[in-house]
Amino acid sequence: MNTQDYLKIEKAANRNRRIRTGITYFLLVVWAIIVLFPFYWMLLTSIKSYGSYNAEYVPKFFTLSPTLQNYIDAFTQVPLARYFANTLIFAIITTAAMLVVIVLAAFAFARLEFKGRNTLFSLFLSLMMIPNELVIITNFVTITNLGMRNTFTGLILPSITSIFYIYLLKENFEQIPDELYKAAKVDGTSDLKYLLKVMIPICQPTIVTIAILKVIECWNSYVWPRLITDDENYFLVSNGIQAIRENGFGRENIPAMMAAVVVISVPLIILFLIFHKKIMAGVSRGGTKG
Amino acid sequence: MKIVLDHLTKRYPNRTKGEADVIAVNDFNFEIPDGKLIGLLGPSGCGKSTTLNLISGLETATSGKIWFGDDDVTNVPPENRGVGLVFQSYALYPHLTVRQNIMFPLENVKGKDRLTKEQMKEKALEAAKLVQIEMLMDRKPSQLSGGQQQRVAIARALVKLPRVLLLDEPLSNLDARLRLATREEIRRIQTETKLTTVFVTHDQEEAMSISDFIVVMKDGIVQQIGKPQDVYDHPGNLFVAKFLGTPPINVFEGKVENGAIVVNGERILEIEGVEDQDVYVGIRPEGFLLDEKGTFHCAKKQVEVMGRDTSIVFDNPASVSESLRAIITLDNRDAIGDTVCFALKPNKVEIFKKDTEARIDYTVKGA
Amino acid sequence: MRKIKPWLYLLPAILFLAAFMVYPLIDVFIYSFEEGYNSASQTFRGVGLYNYMYVLRDPYFIQALKNTFILVIITVPLSTGIALLIALGLNSIPKLKDLFQTIFFLPYVTNTLAVGLVFMILFKKTAYSDGLINMLINMFGGSSIDFIDGPYWAKMFVLCFYTVWIVLPFKILILTSALASVDQNLYKAAKIDGTSRWRTFTRITLPMISPMIFYLIITGFIGAFKAYSDAVALFGTDLNAAGMNTIVGYIYDMLYGNGGGYPSYASSAALILFAVVLTITAINLTLSGSGNKK
């Protein structure tokens, strides 16, 4: 083969590469549209007036007379603000309480020496395989019997521990060199102080990631709140949206429903936009949905 | 197969807009003679790996040409160049056995040139025998030591009978003892196969010990090309002088004045043929002789005995090196006082221009 | 004191786990064998397999089982395949990879119920409007279908579509990082040796990321078997009426809601689900194990 032939090969290869890249971009853009479209549609519908929405037999992709009336309706005609506040309280208390519990446990597993440590840890790990559906039945009965239905305590209690996060944090704690602990011991630092002043600051990135993931989980939790609350005053956003859907605005007021959907989706999307690197890194380290 | 690099240049567009391009390889000219082993040497980021990638075809040159013998391969895709490439990290397929790894390149061949399974196995075994790993054929890479993995990688590169063998830092992932053995092994394989071989390394000792020629590079520019000993003895500039040799050459600020090299006010070597000027003075550690009549006075800091050598760590106000070191043969190290007087071996003393850092030729007076 | 201290640190975790995981785990077995349990008086008639028999004969459970199996069989391979394609695409465009990856991850952080509502509106056919999707179908010459209250296959299609939309971000993320972590030198070596694109994919890429693919298939099966809230989001809380109930939905319906108050039936159903998931996981592990040995 001579240079001419090689140039031909090279040209063909370049052309193929360009075609391939084109197809790749096309498919990725198509999927991006499929992903983004529902978000666009909820925003769009939420600013269409009730009348104009229902007048559209063929849906329009834009609106020329945007209105915020639906948002006003969402906050006045249904207790959206209450759902929102409930979820916020639920997410913050659950996450804070869980962090305390898992930090203490992870510290004990990672740093303290005691008999049966490994056995206990294996036991913890084996519990990780138990699906929620199996234990939720008894938990429902327990909370009901304790008279804690329709209380925050009842909502929060079962989700305060997460073995997976204990595991994640323990792994992270173990990466802190032993020498640091020994040095602190020589200086007379107590275990608790070492945990608070050394380990937590060093592992702060992981702890923040866990906190964000837990908040997302709380924000989206549906099954347990549905079982444990039937009083609207304790509904979280997921149950709230379901209640709105089934008997919310008295009529099928879809634009107002979409306004409510936007309101409850926005906090997570903002959280995601700020922390997307952290969230994605945390999830790829072994998180699963829900 | 002789390789010719003809005004080879590789630029990368700068990531930040408006900044100048990065020139990884700048106007590289060299003819690699057939069947020789060439060491491409330089600190990291000097463009030696880019040069290798240009030869292999993994990257294409911005300008310039590459010839394999009489073929212009500048625009030929890598798979049609007939090169074997060995990586620092070996790049063995971890899920395949040694045999499957070595056979992999042969299985890529399509059409009438494709060998039968039996022929492939035969060829793989031949290559394995050449690097002496024929007893490991059914193992997975993870079951091999680093040195053995490197041999498999070499066998995989050799099995398709390449025209050129390229080795990218092949020894860097090995421990010191294995590195020595594998180094000799590579030389042996190269001698046996008579393949034109290009070997990239940042370790000057490695390059010096096995190469027929070394190419010293810095910032994409070839500094010097030559036989290892020639380059060591006659470094073209201060960079090459500093880069070759362990312990490194001792560098002083000095000047040429009235027919002598002067350091710290002392006339340390009488020379001829150089005009008076400020210079850098480089003295190899082995260039020092303990001599009571010596004219070079330095302050002793420490004496280290390492096996057969004694090395004196000393200080001098005119020094620009981080530490100064002389290696001498001496039995009675108690005899060294706090101030040491050195005489110098003339062929171990180099002077360099202050501005360009190029070496200045001189003759020793009376020689 | 020194010996007690570690246990003090562990105490909260142990207490919570004991109360809300270990005890319920034992209890669910007990419930499932207690016949005729009355949740008001907390008494039961006898012990036996009646609850299991009841559940397995319940047409609603059979429907839920069928729905769940169809959902699993369609969405697990489909979502894994699409995720692999997208991940391959993402890794071939270094420039915009981060942007696309961030967009593709968005469904992961959305409220399933809330976005489900949007999907419902997109697919639903009402008296006022056929909905956006039907508009598209009409554009291509098809006739309108009610995906939310219409024929079974249409409802199943929406459920599968929404499920794939929801689970894809996680799979794309895992596969993209798996692909990115493959030693790039392997590809260079393959290129030098003239390996074709397809062969590089089947002989290098796939084997290198196969552990992650198996991981996704296993977690995908487990996740899909537990499908519930996506169905609620699309079809409302009364899934039995819509004929779109899932096993998990059946469990919750038995426990609470209109047909609720039967923790024993719920427990039996939950244990049946657990057994199914365990069996499928075991089969998966055996398959991947033998696949790896080869």
In short:
Chain B is of the alpha+beta class. Chain B has helices at residues 48-56, 98-107, 117-130, 146-158, 176-193, 204-210, 228-233, 238-243, and strands spanning 3-12, 22-32, 37-41, 63-68, 71-72, 83-86, 164-168, 196-201, 213-218, 221-226, 250-256, 260-263, 266-272, 277-283, 288-290, 296-306, 309-315, 324-328, 339-344, 349-353, 359-360, 363-364.
Structure description:
The complex is a heterotrimer of chains A (290), B (367) and C (294). With 290 residues, chain A is mainly alpha-helical. Chain A is 75% helix and 0% strand. Chain A has two domains: 3-46; 80-286, MetI-like fold, CATH 1.10.3720. In chain A, helix 3 (69-76) crosses helix 14 and helix 11 (204-220) runs antiparallel to helix 14. Chain B contains eight helices and 22 strands. In chain B, helix 3 (117-130) crosses helix 4 (146-158). Chain C is mainly alpha-helical and 294 residues long. Helix content of chain C is 74%, strand content 1%. In chain C, helix 3 (59-91) crosses helix 12 (247-255), helix 5 (112-123) packs across helix 10 (229-235) and helix 7 (152-180) packs across helix 9 (197-225). The model of chain C has no long low-confidence stretch (mean pLDDT 88). The interface between A and C is large, with 88 and 85 residues.
